[in-house]
Amino acid sequence: MFRRNDGFSFPEMLVAFSCLLLITGIFLPLLMNQSVLLREKESEVEALKWMEEGVERAMVTKKYERSSKSYGGVDYTRYWEGGASSICVEIQRGRGVKKICSSVE
Question: What is the pTM of this model?
Answer without folding.
Answer: 0.73
